[in-house]
Each structure stands twice: as C-alpha cells, then as structure tokens.
Amino acid sequence: MATQQGAPSVPFLPDAIANELRLRLSPSARVRVDDAARLLYSRDCWPWLLIHTRAGRHSLRPPHAVVQPATIEDVQETIRMAAAHGLPVVPYGAGSGVTGAAVPTRGGLTVDLKRLTSLDLSLAGDGIARLGAGWVGGRLEHVLNRRGLTLGHFPSSIGCSTLGGWIATRSAGQLSTRHGKIEDRVLATRLVDANGDLRHVPTPHTDALPILVGSEGTLGVLVDADVVIEPLPRARRYRGFLARTVDEALDAMREVLQQGQRPAVLRLYDAFDTFISSARRATAGAAPSSDGLTRRLRAWIDRRVSVSEARRFALNAGAGLLRRTDMAPIALNRAADTLFDGCLLIAGVEEADDEHADASAADLFGLLGDRLDDLGTAPGDHWYAHRYDVSYKQSPAYDSGIFVDTMEVAASWDRLPHLHAAVRSALGDHVFVMAHFSHAYAAGCSIYFTFAGFGRDDDECLTIYARAWNAALAAAARSGGAVTHHHGVGLLKAAHLIDDHTGGGALFDRVKHAVDPDDRLNPGKLWHAPPFDEVRP
Ligand SMILES: Cc1cc2nc3c(=O)[nH]c(=O)nc-3n(C[C@H](O)[C@H](O)[C@H](O)COP(=O)(O)OP(=O)(O)OC[C@H]3O[C@@H](n4cnc5c(N)ncnc54)[C@H](O)[C@@H]3O)c2cc1C
Fold first, then answer.
1. Is the pLDDT of residue 310 over 80?
2. What's the 526 CA to ligand 1 centre distance in angstroms?
3. Contact (Cβ atoms closer than 8 angstroms) between residue 250 and residue 413
4. What is the CATH number of domain 2-115?
5. Complex ipTM, two decimals?
6. DSSP string covering 487-525
7. Is the CB of 134 inside a 6 Å radius of any atom of ligand 1?
8. CATH of 235-478, one of 3.90.1280.10, 3.40.50.300, 3.40.462.40, 3.20.20.140
9. 350 lines ligand 1 (CB under 6 A)
10. How confident is the model over 482-496, as a mean pLDDT?
11. Model confidence pLDDT, tens digit, residues 63-104
C-alpha cells in the first residue's frame, strides 16, 4: 500500500483500489483517503488515546481508507473488496466508545455506518420497529417521539452514539432499570458477514443473537435490527432521598427490585459524588468553574467540620485537584472520606398515565421514604432535566491538563459493597475517585466509578492512568465483579476478560474461525488484544 508524502508514515489505499471501490458503490457513498478522515477514524473516545492525542501522538494504525456506505449493498461491496485485497474491516458507529473497540489495529477499511438510517414502523402496533444500524440515538428518539413512540434506550452519549454501536457493545441507558439494556430491546438483526453476504440472526434453526450482541464488530457488520418500541410515557414522578451510608441505600434498592418493582431510575451516589452532584445543582446553568466548586467545598466544610486544621487541609486538597497541585490522590480521597457523608438516591417512575404513575410512585416512594430521608421532588426533577449534561464536560477537563475516565463494573447484591470498597481503594491510590450505583436488577447492580488524575506531563498522566486501571481491574476480578457492564471490552479490558469468562477465549476462537477464518473483521480485539498499556501510537 502507498504512503502519502508529508502524512503519517502509514499506508493509504492506492488510487486504483479506491477508484474501483467508488465505482462499485452507490453514487452517494463515499470513500475517503485524506489524512484528516484517516486520523479522525483512527481513534474513538478512549481516554488512553485522548491523552496520547493531547501529547501530539495522533494515531495508532489509521485505516487505509474510510468508507461511508449509503446502502446495505454498499457494505457488502466494501467487504468483498476488502477480502479481495486482504484488508481488515472495522465497523464504526459514532466513535463514542471509551475502550478503543473501534480503533483499527492493522489499518484496513473503516466503515462508518451512520448513513444506514432506514425506518420501518409497519409493525409498530405490535411494538416492533426495524431500524438501520446507523441511527444516532438522539435523532432516532426525536423521530420516534413525533409518532408517540420510544425505544427506551437513553445512554448519556445518546447524541453521539448509534444503534449498531449500542448492540455491538451491550450498551445500557439511564432508564435501564425499567427498559433493560440494549440486549433486552433487540429481537433480531441483519449483518453482513466476512464474505459480504447478508445474514439474518436469528434463523429458524439457530439463535446466535446472544453471541452477536457485544461482539464489537468482530463477527459481522450490523446493518439493521428489529427492536422493541413502546408508547411514550405520559406521566413521570421523580424524587430524591438521602441515605446515611451507601449500604443503607443499597439495601433499600435491593428490596425495591426484589419486590418486583421496575422503576425508571434508581441511581445512588456515594458521599463524594453526592457532594459533586449538589455542586452541580448549585451551579446549574452557570459555566463550569473550579471556583464555583471550591466555594461549594468551602461551604460544605464550614457546615460540617469544626477543626480548623482539617478545614484548611481539605480545602487545599479539593482545590489542589482542580488546580493541579502535586497533592497526592490518596490524600484527596481520604479527605473526601472524612468530609462528606450522606448519599443521594434519585428515584423515578414513568408510566402511561397519571393514574399508573401515582400508583407506582406510591409503592416506590413509600418504601424508600420508610427507610431514607425524603428530599422531595426537586433533586429528582433536577436530575431528569440535566441527565445528559455531565457527559459533555470531558473536553474542558482534558484542556486543563488532567484526565478523566469512568469504569463500570457489576456484581450480585451480596458482593456489591466489597466490590465498591475494593475498586475504590485500588483506584484511590492513583486518582481522585467517586462512584454511583445505577442499572439495578433483582440479582445485583452495576457500579460506575468516575475518576480524575493528573501528572507533571502527559507521559506521567499515561503512567498513572495505566497503574490506576490495572489495579482497579485486578481488584474487580478479585472481588467477584464483572470487569465490564455496558462499555464493552475494546482494547482496554481485553487482557482481563479471562477473569470474567474462564475458557471464553477458546469458545470465541471457534466462533471466530467459523464465521471469519481470515480474521478480517475488527482484528486484534476481544480475546486477541494485548495488555492495553502496550497499545501506543
Ligand atoms: C460522554 C459519553 C457518555 C457515555 N455514556 C454511556 C452510557 O450511558 N451508556 C453506555 O452504554 N455507553 C456510554 N458511553 C459509551 C459509548 O457511547 C457506547 O459504548 C456506545 O454503545 C458506542 O456507540 P458508537 O455508535 O459510538 O460505537 P463506536 O464507538 O463507533 O463503536 C463501538 C464498537 O462497536 C462496533 N460497531 C459499531 N457499529 C457497529 C455495527 N453497525 N456493526 C458491528 N459493529 C459495530 C465497533 O467496531 C466497535 O467495536 C458513553 C460514551 C461517552 C463518550
């Protein structure tokens, strides 16, 4: 393959092949070999690569070309061309993945599926829609809502992620306690296989759907899916509750779920996340400002701590993180442990009408109110109104020189407190950490850690990032937790898959060999990825 002059020393698709591909595709499809496109599609939102990018190291292994098919036949032709020229194929949704799953490891053709936006609502009366895999969530909801319908899948990344990406990573939405994860919404899918053939899953004879969901582009390119849709709820009730401890609130959550209730939301913040959430509420509408947060921290400390020495220490510690002093994260986390107590639980129900909403709310809020302090509707309504805000504050954080990331793990209820303590402690040696519990089930719940770290320069940030993740993943495995709940595996967690699925590698190899013997589809992923800190541009 040729290399463009002045471009990164990676090959691009020779003109002859690019032109042949253009001829084979429909007129509105695009084949891009320009550096901008190839660099853009050489990463997703994985923070490890974002830090590298900030350091000026842009690309791991850019694709030879980026193909933007307009039809399913375009996808088929693209894969056939890739096969003819021995090129890998990497399916790409919106690149919002946070694990490097869509990052090419051997170049090839990256296939951006966002133009596949077919919409078949002929079975809407039966609660089924057939949707193109390229629908971006926010736009899809808008279109469905206009017809009084919803998919019920609301990830925080709803404005920048696709249906195909959700299915490929086993995504979870914010209201998953009521609607389930994406695997609970998908009934069937069509995919283009490694030979360019269109396949239906399931067939009357085999149901490969459970293997396909979460396969991260390694087994086929999803082109559309039959999903469960439902009428838009017309009545919502949200409230906030305050627990003294995480354990007290977890007990209440477990009881709700095991009674068979299906609230739209049960979202519990640990004490530090509760503090940050209250800071967010106080500064809602204002531009994000570390001064505002520091003021809140000062006010909190004034109310709760009488020893002036502790106040000074904690204030310096909190501000230290925000302003990049060299205060050790372990000290910051200990300060947070001492200063903050009280855990906010957001609870909500959504139903077809007021009568059902009132009945569900009476059950849910009655149980929670018996065990926790009822804070009224304001915290719940505020959470609902601002539920997508925090996800879009990542860029200013990176601009300021720190890094932020999130880690989602899950366990049965009995293991949850230990998992929380173990992962928090493992992360806490390296980064400043807080957590919330969401996506609750009768059997257990997921924990979502948010952490921030900093180093003297980007290389030190990378070292700290690697130490934090490796320690946290090992702690999750030791505590009997699943190392992923809804972000998928990608390059980040591949080396730790063995902790979740002993023997899974051999099973995956057999499936992969059967459907993609030349390892053409998103190679070097899932069981075949190296430890993530060996992945360097
Ligand atoms: C700010 C922010 C908030 C987030 N919040 C959430 C959240 O609340 N819940 C959640 O679950 N996730 C969340 N994520 C993670 C991310 O949005 C999900 O992993 C999402 O499912 C990725 O979708 P995508 O279309 O961007 O896929 P991409 O990142 O483009 O790809 C992800 C993987 O899916 C594969 N893939 C994509 N499309 C197809 C297809 N059509 N066929 C086959 N394989 C395909 C890719 O090859 C890759 O392996 C968040 C991310 C960010 C940046």
1. no
2. 15
3. yes
4. 3.30.43.10
5. 0.99
6. S--TTTSGGGHHHH-TTHHHHHHHHHHHH-TT--BS-S-
7. no
8. 3.40.462.40
9. no
10. 93
11. 999 999 999 999 999 999 999 999 999 999 999 999 999 999
